[in-house]
Amino acid sequence: MQALGAQAVFAGRFATLFPAVGRHVAAGAGGWHEISAVQADGCRFVCLSDVARTIRGAGQGDVLKMILMDHGTDHFTQDGFRATLDPRHLLLYRPERPFVFTSAARCGSMIFQAPIDLLPSCLRAACDRPRVLGDDDALAALVMDMMRRVARMQRMACDSRAEGARAVRLDALRDAMGNLIGTLPDLSVTGGQQVVSHGSVLHRAEAFILRHLSDPALDVGRIVAALGCSRRGLYRAFARRGETPERHILRCRLECCHHALRHPEFAHMTLERIASLHGFSSAAHFSRSFRMRYGRTPSEVRAESISRKQVDK
User: Fold this and answer.
1) If exposure means fewest CB atoms within 10 Å of the residue's CB, which of 133, 150, 186, 212 is most exposed?
2) pTM, entire model
3) Mind listing the domains of the chain with CATH numbers?
4) Nearest alpha-carbon partner for 158 in 41, 264, 34, 14
5) Paired residues of 23 in beta bridges
6) Is 252 in contact with 244 (CB distance < 8 Å)?
């Protein structure tokens, strides 16, 4: 993940892969609870499937929590603030003060927690009291999308048993978590309204590109139509990275292909199939672009990876 200015200081804390990715199932009153989590450096992302219950808490440290329902509904109360949560709403709150969650039926949620001293000052001040943001808000919808992507990557990493497949999915989890973290410096809530900067346009565009990378028809026109921004605004946002949207799409596709060529999970696939899976409609264009970026052909990268694994044995 690349970032600029103050955002780089914040996002840089999460540039390395979370070392612990695990899942456990625990018996609870009236049913079961399934929890999977990644954590590092005081931050934690949890996926929780829970039974009907009431949770009361307080004094959980000086952190910010973001809660997004995966399914079902939950009811939250803190300091006289009450909210009903469903998959269309994002809750931000500080758990050091007493709070209550109540659900009458089985539900699932995604929970992201970060130490308050790591957050941008604008977000820190905005969350002195609990807030609920709807998916009709562009940046809140982006954060929700990022949380769902982290949850998907987390489940895939937990389910991976083969070493190569797990490595691929842990890398994807790292990238997804990096994108989630990268959105927070742009999330500033004042009087219920959000300020969406060029940075948020960039993150929204990146998220859209990742979701549609396999589509050969992905282009600037589709991106601006989906985001509701101008072409000029999109190009200005990517200029902060020193690239264009087209170059970003190509780079992402090449990086995904390079990763696939080096891992046994994709060993049964032809080079053409790997290229096609990542949005290349022309094998010749893929090979030419790959060699320009990495200085070797796709076949050479795959052969070197196979030779290295045989030596390791």
Assistant:
1) 212
2) 0.54
3) 5-14+25-196 (2.60.120.10)
4) 34
5) 36
6) no
